[in-house]
């Protein structure tokens, strides 16, 4: 077989999957035969998780059983709370999440990964974040509420009050749109670990570590910082020009696969606009989008750089009252569904993932 060098694995297909289609040329995203944007408008986190894991949207009866199964798994074991409490308060939330998910790994059969494990871990992700957030700020952690949906319960545990329907729907739309996205870096990391027949906790720990990076999941908080630093519409062009002139990147723009606008950004712009009403921050954000797109076309004419999902994710999360430190962990709450789907997929037709490297060093003298 002829070998080729593919730095960053761009354009390399490493698996077949029926979970999602990411069409970067045309800006399309399909989850198991459904447009992701349509699912975000008319379906909940639980319905779409069911679709990804079981292959079809649930009937009412299936949905009810699935919601109960998830809700029953929300509570954290005592020893995991102790592990979280032992992490110094200056550590970021992704570090806490990575450590807590690792600590969830128990004595049960480690291979193959199961749907039951996927449900149990997905159910606990919001609880880990909310528990830590409460402990860090000196509040009593809220116990999860069975009767609330996944998203409503997450907001409830974070704030101590039941959120409005508008906030739950908006965050639900974000969580649906980011559940799954093909062979992104964190999903690939999870699949690589799974391909060694290691356990699902190790695979998810690797995936969380990959999502933590600013080029993947940590962009939304940097988008907020960028918009805050710009401060007003009249400063946008100068600020962005200075950034691009110095060779730096604009956060929330560009994508490895999408060479047109990210369909998730289009959908989230609508969701964010509904919540924002006359919010000057959102007005500034849409202005920054326009100026950034225009200037990126000027500075990088061949690259087709547009806003990605992170740009408006920041606006939605800000509008529902999440602080910046919670942006990437909230992304992890949704992407756990896709990670688990890929881990199960990998395990079901496993071949160890083992690419090669090209040696550019010296050969021994003799
Ligand atoms: C997402 C991202 C990592 C994809 O990167 P990639 O496919 O590896 O593309 P490259 O890093 O090879 O960049 C290609 C070119 O576009 C430029 N570019 C890409 N994204 C850019 C951005 N956001 N701002 C400025 N320039 C950008 C690069 O500087 C490079 O230019 P060059 O060829 O003149 O050196 C990249 O677009 C990025 O860093 N975006 C900002 C972070 C972000 O929003 N991440 C969330 C992704 S959902």
* Arithmetic mean pLDDT: 95
Q: How is the largest sheet built, in terms of strand order?
A: 1-2-3
Radius of gyration: 21 Å
Count of DSSP strands: 3
Uncertain residue ranges: none
Net shape = globular
> Helical element count?
16
The CATH superfamily of the largest domain turns out to be Citrate Synthase, domain 1
Helix content: 55-70%
Tally of separate domains = 2
Beta-strand portion reads under 5%
The H-and-E topology, N to C, reads as EEEHHHHHHHHHHHHHHHH
CATH architecture identity of the largest domain? Orthogonal Bundle
Short précis:
By secondary structure, the chain is mainly alpha-helical. It contains 16 helices and 3 strands. The chain starts with 19 loop residues before the first strand and ends in an 18-residue tail after the last helix.
Keywords:
366 residues; mainly alpha; Citrate Synthase, domain 1; Cytochrome p450-Terp, domain 2; 3-stranded antiparallel beta sheet; 58% helix; 3% strand; binds coenzyme A; acyltransferase
Question: Explain this structure to me?
Answer:
The chain has two domains: 20-214 and 322-349, Citrate Synthase, domain 1 (Orthogonal Bundle), CATH 1.10.580; 218-319, Cytochrome P450-Terp, domain 2 (Cytochrome p450-Terp, domain 2). The longest helix is centred in the middle third of the chain and has 22 residues, at 115-136. Strands 1-2-3 form a three-stranded antiparallel beta sheet. Helix 8 packs antiparallel against helix 15 (309-319). The protein has 16 helices and three strands. The chain has 366 residues and is an all-alpha fold. The mean pLDDT is 95. The protein binds coenzyme A (COA). Coenzyme A binds next to helix 15.
């Amino acid at each position: 077989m002829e070998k080729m060098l593919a730095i960053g694995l761009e354009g390399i297909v490493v698996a077949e999957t029926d979970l999602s289609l990411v069409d970067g040329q045309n800006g399309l995203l399909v989850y198991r035969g459904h447009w992701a944007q349509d699912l975000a408008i008319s379906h909940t986190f639980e319905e779409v998780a069911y679709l990804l894991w079981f292959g079809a949207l649930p009937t009412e009866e299936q949905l009810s059983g699935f919601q109960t199964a998830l809700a029953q798994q929300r509570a954290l074991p005592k020893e995991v709370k102790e592990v979280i409490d032992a992490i110094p308060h200056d550590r970021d939330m992704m570090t806490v999440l990575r450590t807590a998910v690792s600590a969830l790994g128990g004595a049960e059969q480690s291979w193959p990964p199961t749907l039951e494990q996927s449900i149990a871990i997905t159910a606990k992700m919001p609880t880990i974040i909310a528990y830590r957030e409460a402990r860090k700020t000196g509040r009593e952690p809220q116990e999860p509420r069975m009767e609330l949906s996944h998203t409503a319960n997450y907001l409830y545990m974070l704030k101590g009050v039941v959120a409005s329907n508008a906030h739950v729907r908006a965050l639900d739309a974000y969580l649906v749109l980011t559940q799954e996205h093909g062979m992104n870096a964190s999903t690939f990391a999870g699949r690589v670990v799974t391909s060694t027949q290691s356990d699902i906790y190790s695979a998810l720990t690797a995936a969380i570590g990959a999502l933590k990076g600013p080029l993947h999941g940590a962009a939304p908080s940097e988008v907020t910082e960028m918009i805050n630093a710009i401060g007003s519409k009249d400063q946008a062009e100068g600020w962005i020009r200075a950034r691009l002139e110095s060779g730096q990147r604009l956060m929330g723009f560009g994508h490895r696969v999408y060479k047109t606008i990210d369909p998730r950004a289009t959908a989230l712009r609508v969701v964010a606009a509904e919540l924002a009403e006359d919010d000057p921050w959102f007005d500034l954000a849409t202005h920054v989008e326009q100026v950034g797109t225009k200037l990126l076309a000027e500075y990088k004419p061949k690259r087709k750089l547009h806003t990605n999902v992170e740009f408006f994710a920041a606006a939605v999360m800000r509008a529902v009252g999440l602080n910046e430190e919670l942006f990437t962990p909230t992304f992890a709450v949704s992407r756990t569904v896709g990670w688990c789907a890929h881990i199960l997929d990998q395990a079901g037709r496993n071949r160890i993932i083992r690419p090669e490297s090209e040696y550019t060093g010296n050969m021994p003298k003799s």
